[in-house]
Amino acid sequence: MYFYELHEGDDDLYSDALLTHEQEFTAEEFFELVQEARRRVQDTFEEDTLVEAIARELERTHEFTYISDGLLVAAVNVSRIEDENFVADILGDDEDADDDEDEDEDDGEALEGELRSLIVDLDRERPN
């Protein structure tokens, strides 16, 4: 199994995608496959990011496997502090998500959908 990575950067925002394939490609060969996929999807993708769209296209057309969060079976938080080690919730796990939703609703803090981060530069000196 060989591993490949895509990076997309826009100033301070970055998105990565990890892919696997049974065949080994040189960096130049992988680059060409990515470029072909990018040209096909760059104006029409429905995913949240261009790298996700390219990863899905490589999966569809060249039998790569896109290692997305949807493939996660388990996630564990690890720390040197014993009490901070635990099995983490995985978004999209229907049974656990339903249980968590009920708990959140009781607290009045129900979360909907997927969580995302956004970094924004603000100009605090507005003209009068």
Descriptive account of the structure:
This protein is α+β, with helices and mostly antiparallel strands and about 130 residues long. It has 2 domains: about 1-70, 2-Layer Sandwich (Alpha-Beta Plaits); about 70-105, no CATH class. It is about 35% helix and about 20% strand. It has helices at about 25-40, 50-60, 95-105, and strands at about 1-10, 15-20, 65, 75, 85. The strands form 2 sheets. It has a 3-stranded antiparallel sheet, covered by helices on one side. It has a two-stranded antiparallel ribbon with strand order 4-5. Strand 1 and strand 2 form a beta hairpin. The model is unreliable at about 90-110 (pLDDT under 50).
Give the number of DSSP strands: 5
CATH structural architecture of the largest domain: 2-Layer Sandwich
CATH C-level class of the largest domain is Alpha Beta
The count of domains is 2
Percentage of residues in helical conformation: 25-40%
> For the terminal residues, how far apart are their CA atoms?
60 Å
Uncertain ranges: 92-111
CATH topology of the largest domain: Alpha-Beta Plaits
Detail the topology: elements first, then pairings.
Elements (H helix, E strand, L loop, with lengths): L1 E9 L2 E9 L5 H15 L8 H13 L2 E2 L9 E2 L8 E2 L6 H14 L21
Antiparallel strand pairs: 1-2, 2-3, 4-5
Helix pairs in contact: 1-2
